[in-house]
Prior knowledge:
The complex is a heterodimer.
Chain A: E1 4-5, E2 10-14, E3 19-25, E4 32-38, E5 45-51, E6 56-59, E7 62-67, E8 72-77, E9 86-93, E10 100-102, E11 106-111
Parallel strand pairs in A: 2-11
Antiparallel strand pairs in A: 1-3, 3-8, 4-5, 4-9, 6-7, 7-8, 9-10, 9-11
Chain B: E1 4-7, E2 10-13, E3 19-25, E4 31-37, E5 44-51, E6 54-57, E7 64-66, E8 76-78, E9 87-94, E10 102-103, E11 107-111
Parallel strand pairs in B: 2-11
Antiparallel strand pairs in B: 1-3, 3-8, 4-5, 4-9, 5-6, 7-8, 9-10, 9-11
Amino acid sequence: DQQVKQNSPSLSVQEGRISILNCDYTNSMFDYFLWYKKYPAEGPTFLISISSIKDKNEDGRFTVFLNKSAKHLSLHIVPSQPGDSAVYFCAASGESWGKFQFGAGTQVVVTP
Amino acid sequence: DGGITQSPKYLFRKEGQNVTLSCEQNLNHDAMYWYRQDPGQGLRLIYYSQIVNDFQKGDIAEGYSVSREKKESFPLTVTSAQKNPTAFYLCASSIVLLYEQYFGPGTRLTVT
């Protein structure tokens, strides 16, 4: 049973606008969350993370929000750029160090 | 340049044969991981190792084996016991007790 779900397999957004990617989880033991970005034929690269003691973390154009009561996190990309076109995975950890549960990914396409 | 290398990029095998996927890192990371990705699914953890000569099963270890004889290397053997071996395999590494993982480019294994 998937403990981390990204319910939108794809997202299309215009350049300059905001991209909002969502991720839901079911395990209340998760206490650390990461977002990875993946280009075709490459491995995922780390983007941004958040600990459960925070509800927001910002890094440049990327902001992650965590709503623990709803077991929901989101990634905001502002403004979206063509180079942001990629697959984005959210991942969660908590029960055991080194063990992450990944979502299925959201394909983002930024159009001119 | 520090990083993770996986070879080969594409691998084809006949059913019933064991096959070993290579993963090497020069990041001086203690921890290494193997994931499998199937279409429409997130990354699933096969095995991970926090230190040389020690490794733990992940969520889907059945039909796979690993070794960790050197810090830099964490090869994965897909045995004939693995019922659905065709998949995209990703290797990653990290500093122990840090969450961010660095991924290799992956190996696409096709078994016919």
